[in-house]
Amino acid sequence: MVKNKTKKTQEQKSKILYKPRKAQEEMVGFTLIIVIVAVILLILLVFSLKKPQQQAVDSHEVEAFIQGLLQYTTDCKDNLEYFSVEKLIYACNRNENCLDERNTCDVLHTTLEDISDQSWLISDSSSIKGYGLNITVNEQELFSFIKGNLTKIYKGTIQVKPSKINIFFSVYY
Questions:
Q1: What is the DSSP secondary-structure string of 1-30?
Q2: What is the pLDDT of residues 54-73, one digit of tens each?
Q3: Does 101 share its domain with 143?
Q4: Prediction pTM value
Q5: 34 and 70 fall within a common domain
Q6: 78 band by pLDDT with thresholds 50, 70 and 90
């Protein structure tokens, strides 16, 4: 009987000791879950508040644009062929007309603005804030235009052609 009483007493004590341990383990587990959820929410908050980085234009993109622009075939032609933009620059410099009597300088102006507007989209969400194109012959301006805002950060290139024709193009971001 004494053994039974002792055994019952020990069982009661172990139950009493077991209950607080179980409660402590549950509290630690609950706290751990709260901490994990808080860390995950913090990470999500950082990513959602982080502004998407705008990509800058590389110099090779500007150079490639000018190369492609000069090779573009326009709708102005002479007796033999349609002019590329490069040939149209030379024709404009000589004050020639297209076969259909349009002024080559007018065609050049329209073509350059259209291609530039389609190639370099300027908007608030874009990294490109503006661009400028300038063509000089013997250091005299043949053609020039600027679109958008000119900032202090830009990439540009120059193409030097025969007959002292220089083509400057800059993209501002």
A1: -HHHHHHHHHHHHHHHHHHHHHHHHHHHHH
A2: 455 567 888 889 999 999 99
A3: yes
A4: 0.63
A5: no
A6: confident
